[in-house]
Amino acid sequence: MNGEWVDEFLLSGPDHEAVLTLGAVVTRGELRAEVQRRQQPLRSAGLTSGGVAVLRLPPSLTLVATLLAGWRGGAQCALVDHRLTSSEADAAIERINPQVVVTADREIRGRLRGYFETDSVITARESGEPAHTEHVLLQLSSGSTGPSKVIGRTAESLMAEVERYGLLTAYPKNGGRIVVLASVIHVLGLVGGLLYGLHNRIPLTLPSSHTADSLHGAVAADPAPTTLLGVPSQAALLATVQSPPRLPQLTGMITGGETVKAKTWEFFTTRYGVPLGGMYGMTEAGMIATDLLGTTRPGLTPAPGMAVEIADGEILLRLPASPYVGRADPTRYADGRLRTKDAGTLDPGTGLLTVHGRLDQQVSVGGLKVDLTEVEELLSRLPGVREAVVVQGSGIEAYVAVTDTMVTGEELSRAAAVRLAAYKRPRRLTVLPAIPRTPTGKPLRSPDALRAAARAQVAR
Fold first, then answer.
1. Cβ distance 257 to 228 under 8 Å?
2. How far apart are CA 302 and CA 283, in angstroms?
3. CB 185 within 8 A of CB 79
4. 345: which residues sit within 8 A by CB, 6+ positions away?
5. I need a labelling partner for 82 at 20 to 30 A (CA). Which of 72, 274, 375, 409 fits?
6. For 294, how many CA atoms within 13 A lie in the half-sphere containing its CB?
7. What's the DSSP call for residue 210?
């Protein structure tokens, strides 16, 4: 694997140019020097061209520089979320079997922190193996519905996705800036934020924390036109602020990962006076379709070069090769098509793609079809409800986070009964203080995990 693409595609540009703000501004020259400085310790640990490194680091300059240093040296780098438990991280490391593992030099605390100041510890693994594929990046799927899969991306795939972003007229351009709320170890924050910004010379800011006040401050810190890039839960947080400060530089927010609820979209756009756009994508392929200005909701325009098809109600995506590394379901990729396991429709007149949620969100109750996304949306709009997740377990089960702790599950069930046909009503409705989430910010949709969260709440 050749690392020249890092210098040519990501790091080229004038030394004085600001590229990252993590509390302090980092210039392109400073970033290049930091990447160069981190290459030698990796080599000394045995990481050479064609080698494999796992990076388990929090959002930080250390993470960015170490990732670019590994790539620059021709290595395959796997990103493992620092928020995973030791057991989960160890299992991921065993699956990938790297030659080198890079971790933070101290315990990382602070669930709402946007970035951290930390150095790294590099550990060589004698049992590790070199790369068996040409992928430069390995990532784990979100795990919102089941075990994570190992997904590989080549340098060519990453560069092509960066260029796809550049073809979107409403995506930030040179002269603007991006405040990145999405995790930079996952595909939206990594490619749509970090790599896109480096290549297109657009400065990026990681806020000090993910509280509403901190996000407002990150936008207000620079007069340049500013776009927020994050996930729907972060848009929902901002939408709860009834009287946000005036932010004339804020041009809009773009979210990915899941569909924004109608209530969140309405409150955000009304209170901030800017668009709330969305995009549909997968770790396996990156960005697939977009509605960056929120003008075609719920329809999305397929991104340039992304060939989308519908077969038996499922979204299929044409890809030149399987994105999976190691063990995976062989039916997910066949005949040049990736089965997304998402339900969708394509409008033959407009070409817009509408994503209807996961296929496992379409269930049968007594022979009648129920769209769990519809039930979820209705529950989310009930007074006092902040968020809802609906799954098929022992019948339809709903898990609801409320804004008013006096609201009970019985009251919500009665309100839902007025609005939902009997066969669509949740058999079980559980009120939680918060919906459990994956490290990427997606709500967990595993019935077992949700029931465990409910049991833990009762035990407190």
1. no
2. 16
3. yes
4. 310, 313, 353, 354, 356
5. 72
6. 21
7. S
CA distance 390 to 386: 14
Q: Which of 333, 337, 321 is CA-nearest to residue 152?
A: 321
pLDDT digit string (tens) for 183-209?
Answer: 999 999 999 999 999 999 999 999 999
CB 71 within 8 A of CB 134: no
Token code pair at residue 281? 């994508």
Helices 212-220 and 232-239, axial angle in degrees (round to 10): 90
Say what angle helices 28-44 and 61-72 make with each other, to 10 degrees: 60
Are 257 and 233 in contact, with CB atoms under 8 Å apart?
no
* Nearest to 32, CA basis, from 72, 77, 75: 72
pTM listed for this prediction: 0.85
d(C-alpha 444, C-alpha 389), whole Å: 8
Q: How far apart are CA 60 and CA 75, in angstroms?
A: 20
Q: How far, rounded to the nearest angstrom, does the alpha carbon of residue 452 sit from its chain's CA centroid? A: 24
Q: What is the pLDDT of residue 145?
A: 46
